[in-house]
């Protein structure tokens, strides 16, 4: 019997190449995170594992959290920080049910970074890579309350703003002069722009406001 070895081998090579190519096209890279991506089951955790920005934010937040646990003077104290972190993790995972899970997750990380840095001097000062900065206070003309700004130097960058009873997470825009962050919610458009010592803030229904940094401490 004549064996069609060459044709069969070629066929299987082509098939193997097609399968390999298909697998490569559908599989996304896995990034390093504070948890094991291989055993992750929560949809938001799977999202973090495959998103460079979220993975970087996750690692940095875990660093801030670990530092807060070493600070006996943190507000709240370390034992409450543990409880708050557990509650925050549940809240973060609920982003899976939002219309834009990634935007929700980015916001959760930015807000938690603000809380940990706000509550602990150790968290704020032991920061060799400056992946997070702040909170910094800004006084804006036309706005009675001070704006507290915490920066998350991911890619793209993020700033978490808090004033009065309002908070907003804005994402860095590419290019342009200075550093500009923008975002919107149900009320409209927000922007926060920095260039050297100049800072401009805009919220829905108002023009750009000139802001000045307030002394820290």
Characterize the structure shown.
With 217 residues, the protein is an alpha+beta fold. The chain has two domains: 37-125, no CATH class; 132-213, Lipocalin (Beta Barrel), CATH 2.40.128. It has six helices and eight strands; from the N terminus they run H-H-H-H-H-H-E-E-E-E-E-E-E-E. An eight-stranded antiparallel barrel has the order 1-2-3-4-5-6-7-8. The longest helix has 22 residues, at 5-26. The model is unreliable at 1-26 (pLDDT under 50).
In short:
This protein has six helices and eight strands. With 217 residues, it is of the alpha+beta class.
Give the key terms:
8 strands; eight-stranded antiparallel barrel; 24% strand; alpha+beta; globular; 6 helices; 217 residues; Lipocalin; disordered N terminus; 2 domains
The largest β sheet comes out as: 8 strands, antiparallel, barrel
Contiguous low-pLDDT stretches (5 residues minimum) are: 1-26
Class per helix and strand makeup: alpha+beta
Strand order of the largest sheet: 1-2-3-4-5-6-7-8
Structural domain tally: 2
Order of helices and strands: HHHHHHEEEEEEEE
Work out the number of β strands. Answer: 8
Gross morphology? globular
Question: In what range is the share of β-strand residues?
Answer: 15-25%
User: Number of helical segments?
Assistant: 6
Mean pLDDT figure: 88
C-alpha Rg, in Å?
23 Å
Helix content: 40-55%
N-to-C terminal Cα separation, in Å? Answer: 90 Å
Secondary structure topology:
Blueprint: H1 5-26, H2 43-49, H3 52-69, H4 78-93, H5 101-119, H6 121-125, E1 132-140, E2 147-152, E3 158-163, E4 166-172, E5 179-185, E6 188-195, E7 198-202, E8 209-213
Helix pairs in contact: 3-5, 4-5
């Amino acid at each position: 019997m004549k064996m069609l070895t060459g044709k069969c081998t070629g066929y299987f090579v082509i098939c193997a190449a097609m399968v390999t190519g298909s697998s490569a096209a559908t599989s996304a890279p896995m990034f390093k995170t504070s948890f094991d991506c291989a055993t992750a089951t929560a949809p938001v955790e799977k999202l973090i594992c495959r998103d460079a920005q979220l993975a970087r934010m996750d690692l940095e937040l875990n660093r801030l959290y670990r530092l807060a646990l070493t600070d006996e003077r943190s507000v709240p104290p370390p034992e409450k920080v543990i409880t708050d972190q557990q509650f925050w993790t549940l809240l973060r995972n609920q982003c899976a049910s939002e219309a834009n899970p990634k935007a929700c997750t980015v916001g959760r990380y930015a807000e938690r970074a603000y809380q940990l840095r706000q509550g602990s001097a150790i968290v704020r000062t032991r920061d060799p890579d400056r992946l997070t900065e702040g909170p910094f206070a800004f006084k804006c003309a036309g706005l009675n309350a001070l704006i507290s700004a915490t920066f998350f130097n991911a890619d793209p960058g993020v700033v978490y703003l808090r004033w009065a009873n309002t908070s907003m997470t804005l994402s860095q825009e590419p290019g342009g002069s200075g550093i500009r962050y923008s975002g919107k919610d149900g009320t409209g458009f927000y922007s926060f722009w920095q260039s050297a010592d100049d800072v401009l803030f805009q919220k829905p229904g108002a023009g750009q406001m000139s802001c000045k940094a307030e002394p820290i401490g």
